[in-house]
Amino acid sequence: MAKDGEKGEWKEFIWNPRTREFLGRTASSWGLILLFYLVFYIFLAGLFALTMYVMLQTLDDHKPTWQDRLSTPGMVIRPNADETLEIVYNVRNTESWDMYAQALDRFLSPYNNSVQTQKNHECTPDQYFKQEDSGDVKNNPKRSCQFNRTILEDCSGINDRYYGYQEGKPCIIIKLNRVIGMLPGKDGQAPYVTCGAKREDTDKIGELAYYPPNGTFNLMYYPYYGKKAQVNYSQPLVAVKFLNITVNQDVNIECKINANNIPTGNERDKFAGRVSFKLRINTNN
């Protein structure tokens, strides 16, 4: 009988036909609760939407409001066969080096003179190409300077479609990571790249040739204004050609950026402003 009583109490709690209550509340009570939460959540959604709207009004579609970046930009090389940054091939085995030549062809195709002439402008060299906004009037889209593939001369792939790989005098291409608003170099001194062997391989690296001369990144390609503001921007490049590197041995090489306003070392990233890789050219069958 006790169990029947408890069962009856539960049934009455769920639905009481005498008071017409469901789970202890009348229809009007449930209606008021649902109305309260409906208004409450509409208010929260409206508050969130208002907050997002106000925040978005402070943002610029073309330039980040805040930038937390290293004072020294990173560097990358091409061709980049894998994450280990090793270029290893045999001059007698075409398949071992042809992939590097093809990778450089793909990378340099946007720098063809015809493409650059169509999309970009001839700029005055050796000075920054600043395109400031006029108050609230945005100067967008911004123009970009031509970087023609022919600037790389012997490493352009035009006169030598194999970039020197077939004769044991390979080319590598170096570029700086894009940083919005960066003005590398000051007092008219352009940043430049230097490459050298690690200490244990100093006598193996031989002579190097840089293109453009002295391995410079011309000032006219800076500042960079971002992908949306400067849609046709072409990063400047530096090519390094190894003319008589020691063959059949590993040569560990480091290239770095040099500028009078870019720190050479960084505690947060020891690889900032430099890139290291291994080059090995085999001549044995």
Automatic annotation (TrEMBL):
One of its GO terms (biological process) is sodium ion export across plasma membrane. It is found in: Cell membrane; Membrane. It is a single-pass type II membrane protein. The chain crosses the membrane at residues 30-56. One of its GO terms (cellular component) is sodium:potassium-exchanging ATPase complex. PROSITE patterns: ATPASE_NA_K_BETA_1, ATPASE_NA_K_BETA_2. Keywords: Cell membrane, Disulfide bond, Glycoprotein, Ion transport, Membrane, Potassium, Potassium transport, Signal-anchor, Sodium, Sodium transport, Sodium/potassium transport, Transmembrane, Transmembrane helix, Transport. It holds the Pfam family Na_K-ATPase. One of its GO terms (molecular function) is ATPase activator activity. The keyword Membrane applies. Belongs to the X(+)/potassium ATPases subunit beta family. This is the non-catalytic component of the active enzyme, which catalyzes the hydrolysis of ATP coupled with the exchange of Na(+) and K(+) ions across the plasma membrane. The beta subunit regulates, through assembly of alpha/beta heterodimers, the number of sodium pumps transported to the plasma membrane. The sodium/potassium-transporting ATPase is composed of a catalytic alpha subunit, an auxiliary non-catalytic beta subunit and an additional regulatory subunit. PANTHER family: SODIUM/POTASSIUM-DEPENDENT ATPASE BETA SUBUNIT (PTHR11523), SODIUM_POTASSIUM-TRANSPORTING ATPASE SUBUNIT BETA-2 (PTHR11523:SF26). This is Sodium/potassium-transporting ATPase subunit beta.
